[in-house]
Amino acid sequence: MKAVVFVTAVLTASRVTAWQFPPSAQKPLAGFAVDDGGDDDIDILYGSQFSGLNTYARIPYVNCFSDDAAKDTKYDIAILGAPFDTGVTARPGARYGPRGIRTGSQRQYADAAWSVYTGKNALKSWATVVDCGDVPLTYLDNNYALAQLTKGHKVSGRSHEYVNLRGWYPGVALTSVFLLRSSLRGKRLTRVTPRYPGSSCSAVITRRRSLRCGRYGSKSLCYLCASEGMRKEADGNSLPNLDTWDPLVLGGGISDYAGLNHGTFLHIAHEEGLIRNTSIHAGIRGPLARRKGDIRNDERCGFARLTARDIDRFGTSGIVSRIRDRVTGPVYISVDIDVLDPAFAPATGTPEPGGWSTRELLTILDGLSGLEVVGADVVEVAPAYDTRGETTTLAAAQVVWSLLELMVETPATAAVDRAS
C-alpha cells in the first residue's frame, strides 16, 4: 500500500514539474544562415571518421593496380587486401577479413592517432600511407588466385619513379591483409607490409616471393600463430597444420593442387629459398600429429619456436628478447590472428584455446621497434564468427596499426643498397 502511494506521489509531482517548451520557437541552426546560401563555414568534407567510403583508418584510397589511376600518386606504404579463403582446412570466411578490418579501424584516423605510449603518430610521419583496396581474386581456382595476388603485390608495390623488380614471377599466397611499403625515404621501392588482415595464411608466400624478387632478398620470418595444430581433412584423417607441413603429406596425397593450402605455405617458402634459417614461430600451442617428426620438419625449414605458455615463464619482455635474438637482417612479420586466445579473437578459421591476450600481443609487437621490417600481414580473420561487438576485427585493426608503426619507425634498406 505504501508503494502505491509513493508512486502516485511521484506521478503527481512529475505533472507539476514537467518540462515546458520555451515561449519562443527553437532555432537549432541559429547563427548559421543556411536558408540564404550563407553556409560557407559549414564543413561537409571532414569531421567524421564514420562517413564516406571505408578505408583503413580513413587514409586516402588509390587504385594501385592501374597505371593511369596511380601514376600521379606517390606513396610510401600501401595497405592491400587479399579476400581469399579457399586454401583453408577448417572454417572458411577469411575472404571477408579485409572488409572487417577496415570496419574495425574506423575509430582510428590521422588527426587522433597519437600513441599514449610513444607520443608518435604513424600517419603524421615521413611516410605517405594509402589504401589500395583489395586484389580481385577468383574463388574458383587457387593457383590462378595466387598468381593474381602475386601480380597485385608486384604492381602495387612498385614505384612509379623507381622500378626495380628483377626476376619477378607468379607466387603462392592466401588471403590476408598486407601493408605494402613502396619507398625508402626518397626512393620509391617495393615493400610489402601488413594490411588487410583477414585472409588465409597461404597468401604469405606470394608476398615473400614479390619481396625477394623485388628489393630485399631472403629474410627472417617472425610468424605469430597458434598452429602446429590438428586439422581434420575431408577423409577424416587428422593432420597437423604446422604451416611448414610437407605438401606430400598435407593435401599432396590427394593431388598437387590440394598440396597448396594454408598448412604448407612455409614449407614451400623454405624450399624456394624465400626465408632464412633464422626464423621463429611464437604463440604455438596446437597439438601435433607426429610427436617428433613435425618438430624436425619445422626446424629443417629454419624455425625456432616459442610456445604460448612461454609468456608465463619469460613475460612479454622475454618473448621480445628471444625474437630479437633469433631474427637477423630484413624481417617479415606475419600475424595469424589465432595467436590470440578465442576469448579475444573468436573470428578465425582455426581457433585454439590457451592463446595470448590482445594486450600481450600488442606489447610484443611494439617491443620489436627498430627491426628492419620489410613486409607484414594479418591473416585468418573471418568476421562471420565474430561477436556482436566485433572483438576480432577491432583487435586485427590494431595489430595492423602496430605493424604500420614498425615500418614507419625504421625505413627498410634495399638488398642492392645494403651490399654497397
Automatic annotation (TrEMBL):
Q: Which domain of life is it from?
A: Eukaryota
Which InterPro entries does the record match to this protein?
Ureohydrolase (IPR006035), Ureohydrolase_dom_sf (IPR023696), Ureohydrolase_Mn_BS (IPR020855)
Q: Which GO terms describe its biological process?
A: putrescine biosynthetic process from arginine, via agmatine
Q: What keywords sit in the KW lines?
A: Hydrolase, Metal-binding, Signal
State the Gene Ontology terms under molecular function: agmatinase activity; metal ion binding
Q: Which Gene3D superfamilies match?
A: Ureohydrolase domain
Q: Which residues form the signal peptide?
A: 1-18
What name does UniProt use for this protein? Agmatinase
Source organism of this protein record: Xylaria multiplex
